Amino acid sequence: MKKLKQHTAIRSISGIVLLLIVFSVIVGVIGYKVFTNALMNQYAEGAFLIAETSAQHVSGDRISEYLESGGTTEEYQTVLNDLENLCNTTGSTFIYVILPDRTDYAHITFLFSTMNRKSHYTRYDFGYVRETTNDEYRAKYKSLFKQTSERELVVRDRGYIETDPHITAMISLKNMDGGGTQDRRPWHLHDQEAYG
After folding, report:
1. φ and ψ at 103, to 5 degrees?
2. To which H or E segment does residue 146 belong?
3. Residue from 141, 145, 146 nearest 154 by CA
4. SS3 163
5. Model pTM score
6. Across 11-163, where does the E strand assignment appear?
7. pLDDT for 121-176, tens place per residue?
8. Can you tell me the distance from the alpha carbon of 191 to that of 114, in angstroms, rounded to the nearest whole number?
9. Are the C-beta atoms of residues 132 and 138 closer than 8 Å to each other?
10. What are 30-52's pLDDT values in tens digits?
11. What is the rounded distance in angstroms from the CA atom of residue 168 to the CA atom of residue 150?
């Protein structure tokens, strides 16, 4: 009888300990997810604020002039320097202005491209054209140009990616009168050190 009581007590204590461990793991996972989501939201809002601040340096009315400048005029260089300073001051990895090919959004042209001096990546030259990263980016560029959204966010932290995990915050660059579809240009802030 004494052995049965001891066995029952041991099983009860083991069951309680197991339940406490399971409960602790569940609470830990929930806490981690809540914290991660809050951190991501805060980081995304910060990225959008940097994009909006950057957009104040680039005139939507002068996109054609920037394109024709070949990246060599004094005004172009002033804007580029302002963006580079902002990129380094805010700790962003990239800040750039791109022009997607609006026929199928499969290619993008870099108008302004900055790189944080602490980054190990390479800056894109003026006028550099490359394929759009993937279908998700194509859909978001289209959404910005079709004016179905004012801003877009891409989170790349899982699966095979060529770069470090990062977020990309994008807004449209408008002309002074608010701009219609023809006048909107995606402003692309790309910060690869979101998780780095």
Report:
1. -75, -45
2. none
3. 141
4. coil
5. 0.72
6. 94-100, 107-115, 129-131, 151-156
7. 888 899 999 888 788 888 988 888 887 888 888 876 655 455 566 788 888 877 65
8. 11
9. yes
10. 888 887 777 778 878 888 888 88
11. 14
The Cα 48–Cα 10 span in angstroms is 57
Neighbouring CB atoms inside 10 A of 166's CB total 20
Token output for 3: 């052995």
DSSP state of 107: E
Residue matched to tokens 């449209």: 172
Q: How far apart are CA 80 and CA 71, in angstroms?
A: 9
**What b/e readout covers 74-91, taking b as 16+ CB neighbours within 10 angstroms?**
eebeebbebbbebbbebe
> What would the two tokens of residue 146 be?
């079709």
Per-residue pLDDT at 193: 43
Cβ proximity of 168 and 153 under 8 Å: yes
